[in-house]
Amino acid sequence: MVFTLAYYLNKACRTQLLVGEQPTCQPSEQIWAHARSQMLEKAEFAPGVEWPAVEAYITGSKGRSHQAASGSKEEDEESEEEWKVRVALSDAHKELNQKGLDELIWNHISAKCGGGLLITAGDRLWDSMEPETLVKSS
């Protein structure tokens, strides 16, 4: 929680310094109190939740590995098509990260693939999103 909050606060302050002449602002005590209550009351904001993403970024681990379908020709073609979509979606994450469009948001990019969706893995930073780390849901 502290790492995540400090990261986004730092990003917001740097952006503010670059685009305006106002002094860097600090969140009000009310905002800090709300952040503390979120951390204590909601599991998704508990300390340590952000660490899988940080650990993956630092170690360069790629998470789940892509396993090609070993079956009929149709399955192989479907798997090849899925891999192309995975690569394109991974590239889209990295491009948006380079343009700064992933800052201060909690969002995802998804793509329809076969009978399901490929979605952003929640434990990855956008610049470390790889084709094999995307999650397929039905």
Question: Could you give the topology of this structure?
Answer:
Blueprint: H1 2-19, H2 29-41, H3 51-59, H4 73-98, E1 110-113, E2 116-119, E3 135-137
Antiparallel strand pairs: 1-2, 2-3
Spell out the key features of this protein:
Aldolase_II/adducin_N_sf; 138 residues; Aldolase_II/adducin_N; Class II aldolase/adducin N-terminal domain-containing protein; 4 helices; mainly alpha; three-stranded antiparallel beta sheet
Structure characterization notes:
By secondary structure, the protein is mostly helical. The protein folds into two domains: 2-49, no CATH class; 64-137, no CATH class. It has four helices and three strands. It has a three-stranded antiparallel β-sheet, covered by helices on one side. β1 (110-113) and β2 (116-119) form a beta hairpin. It starts with a helix and ends with a strand.
Main beta-sheet strand count, sense and barrel state: 3 strands, antiparallel
Radius of gyration from the CA trace?
19 Å
Low-confidence stretches: 63-70
Percent of residues in beta strands: 5-15%
Helices and strands, in order, run as HHHHEEE
Terminal CA distance reads 31 Å
Helix proportion: 40-55%
Structural class: mainly alpha
> What is the overall silhouette?
elongated
For the secondary structure, the number of strands is: 3
Give the spatial strand order of the biggest sheet.
1-2-3
**What is the average of the pLDDT values?**
73
In short:
The protein is mostly helical.
